[in-house]
Amino acid sequence: MTRTSSFPFFDAIQKVTGAGPYTGKFGKEDIGSKDMAYRVIADHIRTLTFAIADGSRPGNEGREYVLRRVLRRAVRFGNQNLNAELGFFSKLVDAVVDNMGATFPELVPAKANVKEIIAEEEKSFGRTLGKGIERFKKMANALLDKGKSELSGDDAFLLWDTYGFPVDLTELMAEESDMSVDKAGFEIAMERARDIARASRKGTAGGLKFEAEATSHLQKAGVDPTLDELKYTYSPQTGAKVEAIYCHGGFVKSTDDAEGDVVGILLDRTTFYAEQGGQIGDTGVILAESGVFDVQDCQVAAGYVLHLGKSTSGSLSVGDCVKVTVDYERRGNIVPNHTCTHLLNYALLKVLGNHVEQKGSIVRDDLLRFDFSNNGPVEAEKLASVERVVQDQIKSSLPVCKSVVPLEAARKVSGLRAVFGEVYPDPVRIVSVGKSVDDLLADPQNPENFDYSIEFCGGVHLDNTEEATAFVIISEEGIAKGIRRIVAMTGKAALQALETGKALKEQLSVLQAGNSSELETEMKEFPAALDRAIISAVTKAELRAGLAALQRKALEIQKAAAVALKQRVVEEMLGIAAEASQAGKSHCVAHLDARIDTKAVSEAANASLKANPDLSLLILSKDDGIGKVLCYAVCSKQAIEAGLKAGDWVKATLAAVDGKGGGKPAQAQGQGTNVAGFPKAFQLAEEFASAKTQSNMG
């Protein structure tokens, strides 16, 4: 890389890092590897800008992991060799676009998205970069102190697993310290981690691996790959022959000889769809004269379809003639989910924009799951638009066209969607919704092609979109940086979700029409019911917004009711106290309908005492709904001197309602839980006060 070719980038790097200028030095002359850092950063920012603008992004696997390694290497160089503050790297995207955008115009509209993606990755790595460098230094110093110069594979794996350091970055840092890395040991540690991960993912296959060693054995034995063209058709009771039986112990002649709970049956032909392309494998039954085999899953490797399951009666042997029966009712739920996955992919592209890339999918019988690139959550309005686009395509009764064509011809079709990094066979199968494959190939560059869902796909699909019946998006959430996940349903499940959503809307409308002080109680169960409900995410967002407004309304009603209650209770108590005072009484026991509103009762008692200084008061109130009794007392100075103290008065009264309370001689309060004892409490309160005052008089 010459000074001339990278001059604009070197200036930009110096500006954002504040480092000294580039001097063009190499090797030992390049003190602190400053100029090396300039060259690495300039090269890597161009690589990342072009790759991300082209639709890729840093990630954990394959080509995407290469980009992540490139980015982290550049960030480490800038931070450690140029003392650049974290966040510098994404700022260099401007320099790339400014200097190369005229020659490569596709960079210009992608600039903001590229900067955002790089900034997120840089921020993520920045959280562990400093700690990772410090950990490496400690590892290196400990080894050098012992006279050793090779970093162990386990240590390199720790830096990768905990701090996100790609092993080639660790090797580079080791080289700078005149050390090396045990690469073989690192690979062993990685494989150990993969084995643990695989073990945790054991499902219906019972951990039975059908990999290269097994398929190689079949090839050497002269077993032909499985004929599975009938998987796209409805073919009950199809005849087939058992070619091989596979288990944890290897290949056996009979299911009776198999080790483990799960066995794999290989047939010469099958109607079963094996898991691939995100679509789960079929289930069903294999029938032989000698026994019945329950197929719980179906996998494929190197063209061999393995039917995984167990014998439910008798046994199967190699050479047996059998009948294969797919569970077509289950598949009938899978197929609309797969077709609607394509429609969802198209809808996201149409609503959100060209930056959307498929990052994975799962097609099951109960739901579909679709992962895609997008920076941040999908706004509620846009999510509603996505859902509506799919629903409109279902209502439009569009034909779903499938055809196998040469890969070269297929790639020329504009508007065709493919998964980035995926390797497709030649010939390849095209699934087009709304436009025939023949029409696509006849005019591959027709701009109208972008108005249709067109994808490479080997899965099983509907013949017409109307067969999907209905579609709802159940959830939309983030699963990784820049990766979102949508879960959706079709058919009967979607109709049920729509019906449930409609019922909840009606329930909310009834609540919204209410205007009583009981609103809070009436809506108590609704939030939990809404959280549990499997309904459209769009509808759920609308209902949550309506619920929030209703909760604000309930709070306002509650506040207004509390004010009204307090005002009524104070006025009522003032009247009762005035009558008692005029009658020459020294104390008064009153029953007020104030529920358990301590604040209202307190204000009523204190206002009455202030208006009648010589009158001691005890107020009782109850709430039958919650089973509680409230007691509140205030005593005049004369009463206290005579021996009537508020704390004692409250304690004596609450004995009748299994309550506790207390306080100062002038003021006390408490609560009880035996509402049935309320009349007795009223009686005790009167007797206690009378006894104290009469004793004093005596």
Mean pLDDT: 89
The main sheet orders its strands as: 3-5-8-7-6-9
Give the helix level as a range of percent.
40-55%
Radius of gyration from the alpha-carbon trace, in angstroms: 38 Å
Largest sheet: 6 strands, antiparallel, barrel
Q: What is the overall shape? A: extended
Number of helices: 21
Strand content: 15-25%
Spatial gap, N to C terminus:
112 Å
Tell me the number of strands. Answer: 22
Poorly predicted parts: 1-5, 199-204
Structural class: alpha+beta
Explain how this protein is built:
By secondary structure, this protein is an alpha+beta fold. The protein contains 21 helices and 22 strands. Strands 3-5-8-7-6-9 form a six-stranded antiparallel β-barrel. Strands 18-19-20-22-21 form a five-stranded mixed β-sheet, sandwiched between helices. The termini are far apart. The model is unreliable at 1-5 and 199-204 (pLDDT under 50).
